[in-house]
Specification:
Blueprint lengths: L3 E2 H7 L5 H10 L2 E3 L2 E2 L6 E2 L6 E3 L2 E2 L7 E6 L3 E2 L8 E2 L14 E2 L8 E7 L2 H8 L7 E8 L4 H9 L13 E6 L3 E8 L6 H8 L3 E10 L2 E2 L9 E3 L2 H8 L2
Parallel strand pairs: 8-9, 11-15
Antiparallel strand pairs: 1-4, 2-3, 2-5, 5-6, 7-11, 7-17, 10-11, 12-14, 12-15, 13-14, 15-16
Bound molecules: uracil.
The site of uracil (URA) has 8 residues, from helix 5.
């Protein structure tokens, strides 16, 4: 990682504004490699130098990865004038990071959203070329059959002439209301709802449970989030 100005690094880690950070340095509570820092413009290497503020180690990260269990009525955007966004559900400590959702869920869809500031990773998760499977649990009005499985497997031509990649449909329970898992490899607008419409069925409930190797943590209640583990980040980077 490149050297950077001490004040910039401290601002980027969310410790405070540039003015507050300068104040901390003036107060003599910022230590670099056991020496008191006195110059906000000094250059530090976040990977090599040990940086402490008031006895607490400063961990510098370029990238953040957060999984969120999105509730219904929350929108997958970074800002909105009326609706609550997925970003609004995070505490102020992430306020200094330009997080965005890697892929969208409809307003009435629940489940796994990855929030990150890593554009490269987000791009590869969403790129149809990478064929990253996204799996959803769905409740369907109507009886889902083996014929539907076959139709999904062959790809479906949607109303806008877009032909989906082969998708997997797994029936958990078939009946007047069926329960299924669906895995798709793109993320077209309302894709799953439109695929079921094609077979004359309606999605009554939809929840995303995984994106490639990343599985929604079952301990997360709706609206809760946690940072990804090092293993989860590595698995996503290996896609
Ligand atoms: N497909 C849909 O129809 N909606 C979603 O939110 C995600 C996939």
């Amino acid at each position: 990682m490149a050297n950077m100005r001490l004040d910039k690094l401290l601002v980027n880690t969310g410790i405070g504004s540039r003015k507050e950070v300068k104040q901390y340095i003036k107060q003599g509570i910022v230590m670099i490699n056991n020496n008191m820092a006195s110059d906000p413009g000094m250059h530090v290497d976040p990977e090599k130098d040990s940086i402490y503020i008031d006895g607490n180690k400063v961990e510098y990260r370029d990238f953040y990865y957060i999984m969120l269990n999105k509730p219904k009525d929350v929108i997958s955007a970074t800002w909105d004038s009326t609706d609550t966004t997925v970003i609004d559900l995070l505490p102020p400590k992430y306020g200094h990071v330009d997080l965005f959702p890697a892929g969208r869920l409809d307003k009435d869809t629940e489940g796994l959203i990855l929030l990150t500031n890593d554009g490269k990773l987000s791009h590869s998760l969403l790129s149809p070329k990478k064929k990253v499977g996204k799996t959803y649990f769905a409740i369907i009005d109507g009886c889902v059959t083996q014929r539907d499985i076959d139709i999904f497997k062959n790809g479906i031509k949607l109303e806008d002439d877009f032909i989906t990649l082969p998708a997997q449909l797994e029936i958990i329970k078939a009946g007047d209301k069926s329960e299924v898992y669906v895995t798709i490899y793109e993320g077209k607008f309302h894709q799953i709802k439109r695929m079921f419409k094609y077979i004359d069925k309606k999605v009554a409930y939809l929840k995303r449970i995984s994106i490639g190797p990343l599985v929604l943590d079952q301990d997360l209640e709706l609206g809760e989030f946690r940072e990804l583990t090092a293993q989860e980040i590595e698995a996503l980077n290996n896609i």
